[in-house]
Amino acid sequence: MPLRDHFHAPLAGRRSWEGFHGQWPAMIVIELSRKLPPGYVAEPRAHFGTSIEVDVATYEEEVSASAASPFVGNGGTGVATAVWAPPLPTLTFATDWPAQDEYEVRVYDTRSGHRLVAAIEIVSPANKDRPEHRRALVAKCAALLEDRVCVGIVDLVTNRTANLYRELLELLGGADLSPPDEVSPVYAVVCRSTRKDATWRIETWMRPLSVGQPLPTLPLWLADDLSVPVDLESSYEETCRILRLPSAVPRPGDVG
Q: What's the predicted TM-score (pTM) here?
C-alpha cells in the first residue's frame, strides 16, 4: 500500500498528523517485538515541547525539612555543619529552550542493565520548522551515535524541505560523501557507529521515500554483529488501518 501525504489536501483536511504520529511508534514496537531476540525489549516514547515534570510532593517535603533545620547532620555523629552558601553566579541571562517534540521507539538490552542500543526517531513538523529545532534533533542523534546507539530517522513531513539526515552528515563530516538523491525531504535512514581497523566509522542505510510508494525495510543494529529488520511498511499500514486512513482519498464527485 502507498505512502500517504499527511500534510496536504485532501488527507490533511480529514485526519490529524498528531493522531498518526502518536500511534505509529506503538505499532513499530509491536512489529519489532516479534523479531527481537531474548534479552531485548522495545518501548515507545513521546515527549511534547520542553515541559518538565517535577515530583511536587517530594519537593515540598524536602523544602519543609530544610526549613525546619538550618544544619545538616554529619553521618549521624551528632556533629552539625552549617549549610554552605554558594557565591552569586558570574553570569545570568534568559534563554528559550527549543520546543523539541520527540516521537520515538527505543530498544534496550535488558542483559546489560537496560542499556539503550537503538532508537528510531519519527520526525515531526516542529522538528524541521526552525534551525534551532533541527539542530536539537541532529545533536541528539549525533550524541546517540557517539554512544554507539543505532539511530533511525523516519521523515514523512512533506510540507518542510529541510533534510535532517543531510544536516547530521554535515555535523559528522560526511556530507560530501552522500549522493544527490539523499537531499530528498522525505526519507528513512538507519545510522550506526562502528570501529574498524582502529578507526571509528559511520555506516548508513538510506532510502528516499515517495508518496504513492511503499515504505522500505531497514536493518536496526542491536550490536556490531546483530540486527533485526524494521518493516516500516507493515507498521505504517497497520497504523493507517487502525486510524481508518484511506489508501487513496476520493476527490469530490468521485463515485465509490
A: 0.79
